[in-house]
Amino acid sequence: MFGDLFTGPHMLFLAVIVLVLFGGKKLPELGKGLGEGLRGFKDGMKGMTEEDSAAAVAAEKKKEAEEKAYQEMKLAQDAKAAAEARLAAEKAGASAHLVTPKPEEVAR
Q1: pTM score, two decimals?
Q2: What average pLDDT does the segment 71-94 reach?
Q3: Could you tell me if 27 and 18 are in contact, meaning their C-beta atoms sit under 8 angstroms apart?
Q4: Measured distance CA(68)–CA(86) in Å, rounded
Q5: Could you give the CA distance from residue 80 to residue 74 in angstroms, rounded to a whole number?
Q6: Residue 83 main-chain phi, psi, to 5 deg
Q7: How many CB atoms lie within 10 A of CB 79?
Q8: Closest to 30 measured CA to CA, from 39, 41, 22
Q9: Helix or strand or coil: residue 101?
Q10: Are 55 and 47 in contact (CB under 8 A)?
Q11: Helix, strand, or coil here: 35?
């Protein structure tokens, strides 16, 4: 449909119309403005992808930090449980010594 619309003669005719409408002095300014706009758009798109990747890296670091904190908490809980079990065993052993008579006393 539009294949025949943008041929050489059509583009030349369009360039002449633009030149007549805007004049020779305004065309460089318009081109500069258009170029700056495109450059800003490209930089904005690049910034968005960098922000996305930076956000992904930050989320990964947060996940790793949470996993590390969880592992440290689990180790601390295990150490506390082991210490309590050891303390309970020591108390049980000490009370067994108090209740159990010595062999010399049994022989009398």
Answers
A1: 0.40
A2: 88
A3: yes
A4: 27
A5: 10
A6: -65, -40
A7: 10
A8: 22
A9: coil
A10: no
A11: helix
